[in-house]
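User: Now give one protein:

AI:
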Amino acid sequence: MKFEPVIGLEIHAELETQSKIFCPCPVVDPTLAEPNTAVCPVCAGMPGVLPVANQKAIEYALRVALALQCEVAPISLFARKNYFYPDLPKGYQISQYEQPLARHGNLTILVSGKDQVVRIRRVHLEEDTGKLTHVSKDGQSFSLVDLNRAGVPLLEIVSEPDLHTPEEVRAYATAMRSLLRYLGVNSGDMQKGLLRIEPNVSVKPQGTAQFGTRVEIKNLNSFHALERAVAYEIKRQITLIMQGKTVIQETVGWDDARGITFTQRVKEGEDDYRYFPEPDLPPLVIDREWLEEIRATLPELPIAKYRRFRRQYGLSDYDAGVLIAERAVADYFERGVAAAPDISPKVIANWITGELFGLLNQTGANITAIRVQPESLVAMIRMVTSGELNQSTAKAVLAEMFQSGKSAEEIVARQGLRQISDRDSIAHLVKRILEENPTQVASYLAGKKTIARWLFGQVMYSARGQANPQIVQQELERQLAAIQRSLSNM
């Protein structure tokens, strides 16, 4: 029997507002702030306090809803989601349920270079919970609660179950992350928990309409973990069914070190949360004029930019995909192209995705903060295309530019790195090397053609790597052929 995986994703994105969603407490970096220093009576759940909705959080949510082509509700409602957990001080979470902010959108993703449309079921606002840290000391275990995160605006984006493979899941998650970063509403940092992705996985016999029992996976802090966890859960469920066992609806965690999922709790139904309208917040009414003002501020979105880069610059699927993944990288590329209409965009793309990305990865730097401006990069590339620098030297020059911030012209002039392209000078150098190595020349003429590579290396070494390699190769072949002819005529 063949099985078909059916997968939908719930994505929780913390909105990068300055203050929390229902109180004036600042939103702080969870890795830098001291625990429980950004807390007030509202987000601590004290009796008698009232929430006030953060307009910027609503604006950010609307930006996402519009970018996902959702139908924005003229009126939506906040609701109380009732459950008890130590990181939820009020005993309920303010969320949206029956009337969410937006519904019925879609996101186009790229899978193996082809478009695939994933439907969006709903987009709604809610408040985040606090954070629990479990520690042990002197044989005793403790759970520590940090409420700095409690009340941070959280956007939940729920897809329809339109995904069927781990690869599609990863493509959807990365596309959504890019979209959120382009819109400037979320950093996409999964390690810090600012973007949390929770797949709901089920399997069904191929060709049947009835969905199987779904399992929700949590504790995923990277796209690699997401892909591995989904693949494992698909295999686990199929194995259970083939053994005649039942898949239980539950929430599972992901153990990345062991590569397995583990039960966290048996999944509750929506009725268990006893949703009811939030009595302390009025209905959220969206002004149409304001909505259109927000729509007018949306940037060119990743999928549109991808198609334009393919069409306008003739880039490959891979290069276009890599460049548009981050808005800052795409902007950097286009500044470089604008500054160098005489250089092929493909060449510029290769230098950015190759050597420059290598330097960024080595240092952990962000492209927005590096010393090599796009105009400086293409000026160096121009020195390569004009023959002033060879490829190997150019890589070293770029590394120096990255470190010092100096221009390629300055580095080349100071270190005497300009490539020798004068044919007469190279011809003289080749002639000297051949005269100094008669034994190797004789071996070449006797049929040992691999000696040519050694002779080439000697010429380049003598020129300190600064001779134009194409001209060296041409001159070496010409002079060796001339010697061969002269011997044949004797």
Remarks:
- The longest helix spans residues 223-242.
- The longest strand covers residues 114-127.
- Residues 423-488 form a domain with the Arc Repressor Mutant, subunit A fold (CATH 1.10.10.410).
- The chain has a mean pLDDT of 94.
